[in-house]
Amino acid sequence: MIPDILALLASLAAILFACFLFTNAIEWLGNRMKLGNGAVGSVLAAVGTALPETIIPIIAVFFFKGAGAGQIAVGAIAGAPFMLGTLAFFVTGAAVAVYSLYGKRKIKMNASPDVISRDLTFFIIVYSAAVLSTLLKGHGMVKIAAGITLLLSYIIYVKITFSDRGGEALEEPEALYVSRLFRAGNSMPLIIIQLVVSLAILVSGADFFVNNTSKLSLLLGVPPLILSILITPFATELPEKFNSVIWIGRNKDTLALGNITGAMVFQSCFPVVFGIIFTPWDIKGTTLVSAIFALGTALLNLIWIRVTKSVNAWFLMATGAVYFIFIAWIFIK
């Protein structure tokens, strides 16, 4: 038990280190591409940090030979948007409160309402369609058509996000960490090198975290579905949470929250398409409840932003607290 816990802490430290490298590199990549904060956070950062949780369902279906492979895949796919739309919102709001408490920033968030509301609108529409596609059981060609439609919707989302340049101009980041090491300039090759290295550490660290978490959960007798909805996404969503906390501390709120909402859009498209085509994609019971909660928190935050024209840290924490309600419901039922 103790070696497994130490391994978890080591992988957690690796993920945190990789997040520092990743946020620095992704800001420089956006700077070189002349993109805004919204485009960098919602697309570049979101897709990069979504790799660990995107890989999990694929590994479960093609490499895991156990009877619960389908359950693990579906649970992991549904668990990612739920974790992002609840716990990640809570952590982001809490980070704002803590930083402001210590005088590191103001409690008022400067995230672009247009960027975040656009992400949430896309997520609600696409993920609702994804959940409803569970009714297509046994309709092979219709399921494939639904999957293609979801993929096309993400392409449209990226096109819109890039075309409006993400709202705010991206400030010039601090010096690239790799360039400090080699005493070189912030060139594109060094940006790519640091980005690739950080992603490699993120993916391997998350995978190591998941494997050790799985061992502990099995020792504790946790069912595969609960493992895939709660424990696995918790580990694989760590990059988004860490990235957002880092950006919140630097007053880059559009990057921080866009990293989460952009990942929600991505997770409602690509992994869902895989689930529709390669798994039974039977959304019901606990999985359905997690999907409803994810959509509910997204809708509440969207309404808040549309009405107040702002993003509020306390409201993020309040809606994110749904995560703890869900945990309590699982253990009580």
The CATH H-level superfamily is NCX, central ion-binding region
In terms of DSSP E residues, the strand content is under 5%
Which regions contain 5 or more consecutive residues with pLDDT less than 50?
none
Q: Would you tell me which CATH topology applies?
A: A middle domain of Talin 1
Instruction: Give the termini distance in whole angstroms.
Output: 28 Å
Task: Please report the number of helical segments.
Answer: 15
CATH architecture: Up-down Bundle
Order of helices and strands: HHHHHHHHHHHHHHH
The SS-based structural class is mainly alpha
Overall spatial form: globular
Largest sheet: none
* Number of discrete domains: 1
CATH class: Mainly Alpha
Helix content: over 70%
Q: Which radius of gyration do the C-alpha atoms yield?
A: 19 Å
Mean pLDDT metric: 82
Task: Please give the number of β-strands.
Answer: 0
Written account of the structure:
- This protein is mainly α and 333 residues long.
- The protein has a single domain, classed as NCX, central ion-binding region (A middle domain of Talin 1, Up-down Bundle), CATH 1.20.1420.
- The protein is built from 15 helices and no strands.
